[in-house]
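Final report, results section. Input specification for complex C-07:
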Amino acid sequence: MKRIALVLLVALSASANDIREYRKQNEARILAELTEFLAIPNVASDEANIRRNAQHLLAMLERHGVAARLLESPSGGPPAVFGELRTPGATKTIAFYAHYDGQPVDPSEWKTDPWKPVVIDGRIYARSASDDKGPIVAMMAALDALRASKRSPSVNLKFFFEGEEEAGSEHLGALLGKHKETLAADGWIFCDGPRHQSGAMQVVFGVRGTVGVTLTATGPSRALHSGHYGNWAPNPIAILINALASMRDAEGNVKIAGFHDDVRAVTAAERAAANALPDNEEELRRSFAIAKPECGGQAILPVPEKGDRQDCLSSTLPSRLLAPSVNFTGIRGGTIGVNAIPAEASASIDFRLVPDQKPERIRAIVEEHLRKHGFTNVKLAWADGYAAARTPLDLPFSRSVLRIVEKTTGAKPLVVPTFGGSLPLYLFEQTLHTPFVIVPVVNSDNNQHAANENLRLQNLWEAIEIYAGLFSEL
Amino acid sequence: MKRIALVLLVALSASANDIREYRKQNEARILAELTEFLAIPNVASDEANIRRNAQHLLAMLERHGVAARLLESPSGGPPAVFGELRTPGATKTIAFYAHYDGQPVDPSEWKTDPWKPVVIDGRIYARSASDDKGPIVAMMAALDALRASKRSPSVNLKFFFEGEEEAGSEHLGALLGKHKETLAADGWIFCDGPRHQSGAMQVVFGVRGTVGVTLTATGPSRALHSGHYGNWAPNPIAILINALASMRDAEGNVKIAGFHDDVRAVTAAERAAANALPDNEEELRRSFAIAKPECGGQAILPVPEKGDRQDCLSSTLPSRLLAPSVNFTGIRGGTIGVNAIPAEASASIDFRLVPDQKPERIRAIVEEHLRKHGFTNVKLAWADGYAAARTPLDLPFSRSVLRIVEKTTGAKPLVVPTFGGSLPLYLFEQTLHTPFVIVPVVNSDNNQHAANENLRLQNLWEAIEIYAGLFSEL
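Structure output:
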């Protein structure tokens, strides 16, 4: 162990020392650049300010030697900011994604003004400090640091900064389709999301898909006395809950025929990676006050395998996220304790999908399930969904990213086969036919999407070294 | 048919003509007495006014020749007003029940002042006009009319007017227990509730019992992102709906082992009476926009009998009310369309019981059912309930009441084996060991419990003839 650490330290000093030195001498300038960027309000619906952000970012890219222009979507919405830096002789192109828009703010919940960045106790506080303006500024600093140390990128670099990620990326699909050639690359690196709660780096190779539906069962046209009519009038709560219960049991096992049909098999490497992630089950359970389930409880296994259902040890959170799931998220009908049969009852389901499940096929499968079980009078309102995406762990691109992150940080990153949450990365995978990985650099306690968003400056400094490594060693 | 009607008409004219004549000559006086009574606000929680009502009623009874006094409950609450009129030589005692308190009012919803009675288009509008001050005044007028025509009651009469029926009769059990001897009778007649929607008289021989429970399933201590934790954290909506679905299916069939164990067999007479009630299924379905279920749908049969489940013709509303039922009345958890696993979810069940189901045994059976099905983490909060009550149709008392109502009105009344709703009549049955029947006299469109409560004057006049018949011919 000691020996390996020493070897890494030597490798680190050879390639990263000059980057670190550059950063140390330029911290004030880098922070000033971030501060100026953060001061421009960036809620996606605030069109004027979003355009100001885009122009600011365009100038920033040019200032750091990157040829830049705006990419508009044919369907409208905020522009994406695109930059390109060609490397003479390079045969590969790697694209870096981040978004420059931020979540809406409720200033009354903030301790400081969300658009007046301020450094307190080694963190800078402002909307988008971590999500994602900090990472964008770190990329620019990494380019400067490489140049200052007389090093060149090893590949052609492309930068793609989206302007409506926090608003649902409504126009992204059309934008990617239109600018397919411009955005062609051999790999995409997503600079979004937080590092692991332990502070360790994590490299993430997938996200789940998602599709949502609201079910509504109807009873009598108005609420009826449950004594006078309860045996006779159809009860919408009873219809609804029986429809829901036909789809998954209390432990989470999915009972919809065909739901798992398209599930891509989890590879041995993915399973091993999931099992190798830090075991914080006990800590999570304590923090959420959740009892440890009895063996077999709460187990939906990635790929139905005989015997697995009884294997509590393999049903940790990371391994479960490799599987699709049926989540009941809301239910509402009648009034608790009021003796009436209500006129209707509704519930929402959030289906989380894995590769290669398709939202439109899940929709058809669910509708067929309800028809087959006689719930023809339950109305369904589907929300638009999108597919999952997952990059194989053993691609050369995947291995290179892991190697470089390890080298620049001096520690093996956690290998996360998939996030449980959803991002529309399938758009990149399916439109651009390019593998992707997610390399989060910011602190996990950054209050992303909430009040008092912040970025730990030490994370900003380390990000510069990681990006410099990715730019120059891929 | 014609012959029978003629015979009835003759009988009617012999005994009821003088009652009707008396009424016709005294309408203004009777109406004045009702108006004065209705002008005293009578919400059970309005202690001062409830006492004013009781004193007013005491004086009214005395004025009409009935020895009267207040009966207090040892546990507190409004007093009951008790009156007694002995008949020399009579061997039987019949008690008449009504309540003098009324539902709370929201004056903004009333077209006229609820405490300023006014006659419009042949109806008197005021709170309690129908429920039950009108019937009380009709009883007093019936006593006067008998006296004016030189006739005596055929039995000893007792009057029991409750002061907190609309507030849940909380102190009634203790009051009946304390005044058991005072209230001893050979039969009770309840002068509460409306006539059938068709306008026909109905005599009702039972009410269902009721017991309610609220179930709460808990998940994580705070709402968790359904993407990141949905496969892993227990989902309280899933636990709750699976617990509920284990108890009854979408069609209303009860799946709780032992639930029907204590159900008293429905007699052939009760079943025949239920089947003989007017068939207004189509009209009700149209009015509530309910589709006719397929054969077998929504069928919970009174007594499990082979083959009955497929017999749509026998599953009319009245026949279904002879059975107990499990009604889901409210459900709530999470937020529709928000992708989170909520911290908890709750639902309420209204169990309607038939003789001889006991609320405390239903409670034990439900708890055992949930335990057996593994829902040990669902918390239950039971409300106090009470048992059903039903008087056999073939008791001499039952037959006499039916005969007298037919004779005084000139038409066979509808024989209703039980109401679907619940009243604590078991308290009378169990404490006083006396059979009861309900003889509603007021119009069914009286807006009972709602704004613009009213009593059709023609119903008031007919009530006087019916009560005179019951007083003098039982």
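The CA atoms of residues 370 and 376 of chain B lie 7 Å apart. The first strand of chain B starts at residue 67 and ends at 71. This concludes the modelling results for the funded period.
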